[in-house]
Fold:
Amino acid sequence: MRFTEAPADLPPGLRIYAVGDVHGCATRLRDLHSQIAADLAARPIAQARLIHLGDYIDRGPDSAEVIGLLAAGPPIRNLGTINLTGNHEQMMLTALATQDADDIDLWLANGGVDSLESWNISPDSPPDNWPNTIARGHLAWMRELPLTHQEGGYLFVHAGIRPGVALAAQDRHDLLWIREPFLTSDNDFGVVVIHGHTPVPAPLMRLNRVDVDTGAYLGGELTCAVLEADRIGFLQA
Structure:
């Protein structure tokens, strides 16, 4: 892994591994976790954290397996783990809770069919039966996922933030869904935003944000940003 100068800093002795959108790619996620564990073993540090940036489900083949893996607890021994929520978790939970036809259609059109099939549920079956067939612990885990996490000069969030709005006043919908005007903003946000949500061919670093969604379900890589002190590197599976 090669390191370059990062756009922000972390306190001395702290390393963060931030993983982009998984989208049901369980094999890639396990591979990436193995690489993270190997890096920790090769380069011990006083404190380390693993942050997943949301969108664990939909589009890829193994949503149920991914949720089961993460809901079981930290996937790497002795590595504190923070799992953030993404817009796809929100779509699924909303569809299951409301049973509204529009909410269900929105989720199914955005990869929900793949998720249902990963839980061995036919998308043609009655939707009111779906919540009872999905492992109860999986749904409870998704409902409790936080929106953001902040460390040092970084804010970790699924989609991004709205420029010109204070961090404490950001809207939930923006944190989960925003693209523009966030992606083209040159604003100094007061923090560097580490995010996914918008697929890019390779990790994209700007002065105010780093995008680590490299389209794993599209045939790209699953990316992890490795942040420590004033530098950044990337692991991929």
